[in-house]
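S.,

Sequence below, as promised.
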Amino acid sequence: MSAPLDMEAVAGKVPEAVRCSSPRDLIALVDDAVSRSGLLDVLDLFDHGTAGLQAMGDSLLWASDFDPDSELANEPIARALDRYLSPFAYVRLLGCRTALDGSMRSGRMLLIKLARALGKHRVVFGTNDSIYQNAFDEQGFRTDQEMRFLYSSLAAIDGPAPDIDSRMARIMKIRKTVVTG
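The prediction came back faster than expected:
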């Protein structure tokens, strides 16, 4: 079993990682990154999370209930990111289980509402299980972990995220079908 996610260890591995301790500081940090490198194609936000919720530091970044008509918590922060993201940017919520539904919050609605708030053709990804520091390397979230852990706002339109065991069983079935014909 891997060690729980250690934010400092992950930030130390990824040269482009910037520590953000509160949602109110996010826009300034993103503004600084964009002024150096141009519009962002991918924005990875890794901090603690739970079903339907992404934290940043000791505060709530975004969360959603099950009501499709209710406002996303902290929606103004999402709307403020619009000017910093390319039209087809990905935003990935890399806290634990952010794409899953819980008793009070909905990961499915979190992904859909955040994508809507970000606008244009942007896609939001959440996670379907706990995320550990071995899921990151010098480039950030490892590409070989994406299929296993990430669930998109586009898929969320059709239904809730599967748990990790269901997801892995489906992946193995697809691989077996492809290999054996």
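The longest strand covers residues 85-93.

Coffee later?
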